Amino acid sequence: MGDPTVPAERRRYDAVKRSLDVLAAGTGLVLASPVMAATAVVVAATLGRPVLFRQQRPGRGGRPFEIVKFRTMREPDATVGDDNSEARMTRAGSRIRSLSVDELPNLWNVLKGDMSIVGPRPLKTAYLTRYSPRQLRRHEVRPGLTGLAQVSGRNALSWDDRLELDVWYVEHRSLRLDLTVLVRTIGKVLRREGVAEEGHATVREFFGPTPTDLRLIELAAVGLPARPDGSAAPPGGAPGASWALADAATLEVVAGSRQGDPGRMDWVAVDRSGRPMTWCGFTELTPTTARIYIVACAEPADRGLIRPTLQLLIARAHDLGLKQLRLEVDAQDAESRRTFADLSFRETGARDSTTIPMALTLV
């Protein structure tokens, strides 16, 4: 019967599309076998074994499957840094990726039924909890080798725009649209335009939809209510919960008893009405790293503010060209620790009985 909420013409096309996928993938594997064999030899010679890269990705309905590609980068090296993708990329790997040859093993995923020729590209499993309800609709169909977002700008698009194109495809999928995407894909590959894809060095990680209910204002910005000493500051009295722990100097800054210094940047996150919700910022700022803090403006503190505030800070870090963000979380605050971990912060160094250090590597 199929999903009754899906228009009948799309249900019919979905049934036909699977047959077309099998035919195209089978034919593609046969025709591409010489290229794949040659690529396997090159990868083995330059990177060693295994020649294939395997990773769990979410498919239709969010169900996990193992995606298969040709390797193009060396294994992470602690002396180089896991985040240094450019250093790990070989010349041969760059060439393979520029021609999209590394994606050819995906045809096996199509033949197995994990993927389709055309559909939203499979992204990281960690993103499932970061999507908005609308963005999650991209998983109503099988992921594809190529998709509408990939021929509309790929990594040049913002994440919000890319995911909106994915959902638009789900809502309007048809044979005509798939053929249009395929023709445009061939043209882009031949011109080598926008070939970088999710997981490559030129694509930033997705941390969630761009927050629309909060915006950052510099703590010293004109227009905020003034402290007794005349400097600008948000109202709200004593600070509330400290989710990304603030040091004593930071608490003095947000309390108005101390001015900021060149090694820090401080903001207040306000809602649409201009009401202050969180104090946040960077301390121990260098050209590549910073420590962050997030403090509620008042009690009771709304934990739902952590994620959007953190996303705004990450966006500022990208604008500044920072490569790593560090924070400390209360060892007893398991919920905040889970929130930071869900946004790819990882525990670093030794924890003590009171605090846990965490860090995020930015691409």
Structural commentary:
By secondary structure, this protein is an alpha+beta fold. The protein has 2 domains: 184 residues, no CATH class; 147 residues, Aminopeptidase. The chain is 34% helix and 18% strand. Strands 5, 6, 7, 8, 9, 10, 11 and 12 form an 8-stranded mixed β-sheet that branches. It has a two-stranded antiparallel sheet with strand order 1-2. A two-stranded parallel ribbon has the order 3-4. A hairpin with a 5-residue loop joins β8 and β9. The longest helix is centred in the first third of the chain and has 40 residues. It starts with 7 loop residues before the first helix and ends with a strand.
Entry summary:
With 363 residues, this protein is of the alpha+beta class.
Number of strands: 12
Determine the number of helices (DSSP H or I, runs of at least 4 residues).
Answer: 9
Distance between the termini: 45 Å
Q: Rg from C-alpha positions?
A: 24 Å
Described by its quaternary structure, the protein is: single chain
Fraction of residues in helix: 25-40%
Question: pLDDT below 50 for ≥5 consecutive residues: which ranges?
Answer: 221-237
Helix-strand string: HEEHHHEEHHEEHEEEHEHEE
Please report which band the strand proportion falls in: under 5%, 5-15%, 15-25%, 25-35%, 35-45% or over 45%.
15-25%
| Overall spatial form | globular
- Give a quick account of the main beta sheet: strands, pairing sense, barrel closure: 8 strands, mixed
When the domains are counted, the total is: 2
Mean pLDDT: 83
Helix/strand-derived category reads alpha+beta
Domain Bacterial sugar transferase: 17-190
Transmembrane segments: 22-47
Protein name: Sugar transferase involved in LPS biosynthesis (Colanic, teichoic acid)
InterPro entries: Acyl_CoA_acyltransferase, Bact_transf
